[in-house]
Amino acid sequence: MWKIDKKTREDVDKMDDYAAITEKCREFLKEPEGRTIWDWAMECMDLPGLAMHCPQHHYLFPAVLLTACAKKERKSEEELLPMLEEAKKRAKKVLGGFCGYYGNCGAAVGVGIFLSIYTNTTPLSEESWQWVNEATGRSLIRIASVEGPRCCKRNGFLAFEEAVEVIRERLSVHLEMPSEVKCHYFLQNKECKHGKCPYFKGKKYK
After folding, report:
1. What angle do CA 117, 118, 123 make, to 5 degrees?
2. DSSP letter string, 154-182
3. pLDDT 10s per residue in the chain (206 long)?
4. Which residues are CB-neighbours of 96 under 8 A, at least 6 positions away?
5. Can you tell me the distance from the alpha carbon of 61 to that of 59, in angstroms, rounded to the nearest whole number?
6. Dihedral through CA 181, CA 187, CA 189, CA 190, nearest 10?
């Protein structure tokens, strides 16, 4: 099994993006309660060298969701790591620009990847087959509520909103909502929609 022993911050910074996201998720699983999936996602987005828009986000979002549900249900690191490895394997098949070229954003696909892995869904599954396709579809509709150009950060935040609802409905797992989500990546995004993005000035949930 893929495993990381004790790592310094410098070691993490030198990892490839996928491995660094996995290491972050290992840390999230062990930390005290109190932070949300948005907090975790932004900590991953802040990793040195992670681009504003890149396919690594297609792994980042399902990885965070898998970790959050594993933490809620008190799963061990040994149970989580194989799920993360499978999510990485699947996410790497979702190409960059999938949103514009295929009409299906990788953040929405990521929600489907998460739920498929967490429920052990296959093409022959019955009830959960419906769930995973519904989860992707609902996330995609939420993402499409804001017009393009694409933004990996915005799309992930929107997908998370739908994912929290799906997870509560289908898994009876309750993930905490933040009081507010405010984007701090707009200076890195030359196509930022500014005031047309719900997170530019901050979106309040409580």
Report:
1. 45
2. HHHHHHHHHHHHHHHHHH---PPPPSEE-
3. 333 344 444 454 556 999 999 999 999 999 999 999 999 999 999 999 899 999 999 999 999 999 999 999 999 999 999 999 999 999 999 999 999 999 999 999 999 999 999 999 999 999 999 999 999 999 999 999 999 999 999 999 999 999 999 999 999 999 999 999 999 999 999 999 999 999 999 999 97
4. 53, 54, 55
5. 6
6. 140
